[in-house]
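Hi everyone, sorry if this is the wrong subforum. Our group has a chain we'd like a structural model of before ordering constructs, and none of us has done structure prediction before. Sequence below.
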Amino acid sequence: MALDSAKKQEIIAKYGRNKDDTGSSEIQIALLTERISELTEHLKVFKKDHASRLGLLKLVGQRRRLMKYFKRTDKEAYSKLVGDLGIRDNI
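Answer:
Right subforum, don't worry. Here is the predicted structure as tokens:
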């Protein structure tokens, strides 16, 4: 369920602060969001895949913690990122 490198580079180029940025909060949240959406589609087909469901819950928790940190540190960039990714602001 890992992202292929082309898709990952595309996300890094879109959300990175500069060309060498690979680990900022924006990028991490965007990568986690992409993995979460892929796992969600997988679980719609394979409803009894409980191991993947557990992995999905862990990814959602990790993204939630990152979003909480990012909202606390940079409120404006957080609201822009949430709008771009189309995720709810329930933190």
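For your construct planning: The domain at 5-85 is CATH 1.10.287.10 (Helix Hairpins). The chain has one domain: 5-85.
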